Amino acid sequence: xxxxxxxxxxxxxxxxxxxxxxxxxxxxxxxxxxxxxxxxxxxxxxxxxxxxxxxxxxxxxxxxxxxxxxxxxxxxxxxxxxxxxxxxxxxxxxxxxxxxxxxxxxxxxxxxxxxxxxxxxxxxxxxxxxxxxxxxxxxxxxxxxxxxxxxxxxxxxxxxxxxxxxxxxxxxxxxxxxxxxxxxxxxxxxxxxxxxxxxxxxxxxxxxxxxxxxxxxxxxxxxxxxxxxxxxxxxxxxxxxxxxxxxxxxxxxxxxxxxxxxxxxxxxxxxxxxxxxxxxxxxxxxxxxxxxxxxxxxxxxxxxxxxxxxxxxxxxxxxxxxxxxxxxxxxxxxxxxxxxxxxxxxxxxxxxxxxxxxxxxxxxxxxxxxxxxxxxxxxxxxxxxxxxxxxxxxxxxxxxxxxxxxxxxxxxxxxxxxxxxxxxxxxxxxxxxxxxxxxxxxxxxxxxxxxxxxxxxxxxxxxxxxxxxxxxxxxxxxxxxxxxxxxxxxxxxxxxxxxxxxxxxxxxxxxxxxxxxxxxxxxxxxxxxxxxxxxxxxxxxxxxxxxxxxxxxxxxxxxxxxxxxxxxxxxxxxxxxxxxxxxxxxxxxxxxxxxxxxxxxxxxxxxxxxxxxxxxxxxxxxxxxxxxxxxxxxxxxxxxxxxxxxxxxxxxxxxxxxxxxxxxxxxxxxxxxxxxxxxxxxxxxxxxxxxxxxxxxxxxxxxxxxxxxxxxxxxxxxxxxxxxxxxxxxxxxxxxxxxxxxxxxxxxxxxxxxxxxxxxxxxxxxxxxxxxxxxxxxxxxxxxxxxxxxxxxxxxxxxxxxxxxxxxxxxxxxxxxxxxxxxxxxxxxxxxxxxxxxxxxxxxxxxxxxxxxxxxxxxxxxxxxxxxxxxxxxxxxxxxxxxxxxxxxxxxxxxxxxxxxxxxxxxxxxxxxxxxxxxxxxxxxxxxxxxxxxxxx
Length: 937
Known about the structure:
Structural class: mainly alpha
Helix content: 40-55%
Region (Disordered): 468-492
Distance between the termini: 110 Å
Number of strands: 13
InterPro entries: Cyt_c-like_dom, Cyt_c_Planctomycete-type, DUF1549, DUF1553
Organism: Gimesia aquarii
Keywords: Heme, Iron, Metal-binding
Protein name: Planctomycete cytochrome C
C-alpha cells in the first residue's frame, strides 16, 4: 500500500513538472514570437517601408489619380488586394508564392522596371524576410517609436547619423551614411609626424611609399635633369625651358642637385608666367568667358579685369582664404576698393541671358547658378542636386541649399564704375577704341537711313490723320488707330535691316565699354528689372528692402513652402555663431550676407575648402587629384587614394597661411614628383596599379591647348610676353571666323583678329573667349566648354587633332615663323638650320641620326617647294550677310564691315616667303607635331 502511495505522489509531481515545463515552453514560444514580431516590425519600419517609398510609391499610390496597374502599395490592404482576387500579389508568410517578391527579383515581371532602379540583393532579401514574417505593417505610432529608438543611436554597423539643419522628412534627417562617403565633411585628421618613423623621408614620400610597399612595387628612379626642368617649367609657367636654361640647370645639378632644384622652383615661382599659368586653372573652374551666352551672347566687356585680378593674385601669392573672401564678397569686405570690387567678377562668370525669360525665373536662374558654382568651386560640393529635394547621397538638406540661396538673395549683377588700377594694362586703348567707334558709327548711319525713312512716312501719316506727330518711342503705347503701322513706309528688306542695325549699335556700344573704368561685378539691393544688354545699379537703393526666401518644392517658384534664413552648410559641424538659436544662420541684413558666408567658407576649421584647393593643386601637378573628382567630394565622387596625405597636406597648408607657392615647393621637393615617368617593371605596375594611383612613376601628360599654342609662339619667336589688358583676337580658321553666327534678331559680328602680330600673338589666356564661338584650334585640342566648370581637362586624343596639328593655318603660320627665326639666326647654313631647330623645339642638340634624316627631308621639301607656288589669299574688308525677316519671311541682305583688314599686318604666310623657307617650315612643322614637343614626361 505504501508503494502505491509513493507511486501516486511521483505521478503527481511528474505531472506538475510536465505542466510547468509546458507552461514555460509556451511562455518561451510566446516570447520568441513576440520578439520575432518586433524584429519584423523593425525590419518593415526601418528598411522595407523606406524602400517602398523610394522605389514604388511614386507609381503605385503617391498620386491617387494615377495608380499604375491599379495596384496601390501605400497600405497593407492595398498590397494584399491587388487586382486579381484569385491570385493575390502578396501571400504573408510565403514569399515564394508572392508575385510581388518575384517581381522585385525580376522573375517574370520586372519591378521597378528601370535597370537603374532595380533592387539590390540586400534589398530583395529585406522584402523576402518581411513577407516570410507575415508582412506586418505596424501603425504610425509604433513606427514612430521604432524610429526614435533607432535615431537615438548615432553610429552603428549600418552607418552614422549626421547632424544637419534637417531634411524635409525624418527619414532623410536620420538616415545613415557610410563613414567613407562623408569623409569630406569630417574634421581634418591630425597626423602626429613625431610618431611617424620618417627615417629622413619627405612627408609626402612617407605617405605614398607606404602604399607602394604594401603592393610590393618598385618605384621608378629619379628623372634626369633635362626632364625635370621641362616638367617643372611647364607645370609652373605653362611654357618650355630655353636651351640656356637647361644648360645652366644641368651644370648646377651636377654640383648640388637639391640646391639646383630648389633654386629652379623659386625662380619659376617668381616668374610672371606663373600667375598666367595657374590663373588658367582657376578660370577653368569658374567658367571664365568674355560673353554671357544664350540667344544674344552679349559681351561682358570688362570681364578681362577679373581675369587679370586672378593672375595678379597668383603672382602675389595671395593667401587662398583671402582670395576666396574677395571673390564672394570683396565689395562688402573693402567697400570702395577697386581690386576688391573687381574680384566679385567671380559672381558674374556663369552663362546668363535675359531674352524672353520672365523676370522672376531669370532671378532664380542667376541665384541657382551662384549657389551651385560657389559650392563646387570652393567646397567641392555640387549644390545643384539638392535644389528640388534633400540630397540623395550627401548630408546636404534642401534647407541648406535655400539658406545659401538666401545668402545671395540681395546680390544683383551690374557693370559697376570702378577706377582703373595703376597696374592694369591700358596700352593701345586709343587705337582699339577707334576701330570699335568706326563700326559703331557705321551701324548708326545705316540704322538712321532706315529710321529716317520710316519717320518721314510716320509724319505723313499723322498729317493725313490730323494728329500731332510722335516719335517711335512716344507712340508705342497708343491705340492702333491713333498711330501709324509699326514699320510704316519700309519695305520688307528695310524692316529686317532696321532690326539688324539696331542690334549692331547695341553690340558696338557694349564693346566700347571695354575701355571704360567699369567692372563686371555686383551690388546689394532690391530686385528690379534686368536686361542683359545693359546692367547698371539703380540710382537709389532701398536699404529697408529684404528678400523673402522659401524652400521651393521641386525647385518651382510656384511652390514655396518653408521660409528660410541666410545660412551655411550644416553637415560640416562648423557653426557661424554658436550663441544663436540656429548656429548655421548668418545675418539677414541687406549688407554682409555674402561676407558672412565667405568667411565661413574660408574658415580654418571648415573641413571642405582647404582640402578642395590642396587637392586641385596636387591634380595640376600629377594629372589626377588625391581625390579624382576635384569638383565633387560627395558620396558619388571619388574617394581619396591617400586620405592621410591629403589631410596632412591640408593641415600644413592652413598652418602656413594658405600659401599656394609654399604648397608647390612642398609637392615638387618630394621624390614622388621627381620620379621618372618610365616604370621599373611596366607589366607588374600595369597589373597592380593600372591607373598609377600609387604614383610609383610620374604620370606623363600632353600639353593643354593653351600650352601648345603658347609654346609654338615662344619657339617661333613670336610670343609677346606683355601681360593683361583687353582681350586679344588671335587669327582663327577664316571659314569659322566669317561664318554667320545667329543671335536674336541678327547675326553676331565676325571674328576680326587684332591688327598687328604683337597684339594677337600674346599668351592664350588673354584671348577673347566667346561662349557661342570657340577658337576651333583650341577647341579641338580639348579647350573646355565655358558653360560648365571644368574640374580636369579632357586629355583624350582623337584623329582630328592630328589633322589640325599638321594642316591648320595656326600651325602653318607658326612653322613659317619658326623657320624665319632659324634663318635669321643661322643665315645660309642648312645643316645648322636643323641643329638650331632641334635646340629650339626640344632644348637639346640633335642626335647624328636626327641630323641626317632631317637634312634629307629638308632637301626633299626644297625640291617640292621650288616646283609648287602657294596661292595668295586676300583678306576681305566686308562680307555680305543674308537673313530672313521674322515677321514676313522675306530674305534680305546687308553688309558687315571688316575694318581691321583695311590696315592689317598679317603674320608671315606661305606666299610671302621663298621655297627655302617653306621647306624649312615643313621640318619645323614636323618637330611641332612630335611627341617630344607635345608631351611632358
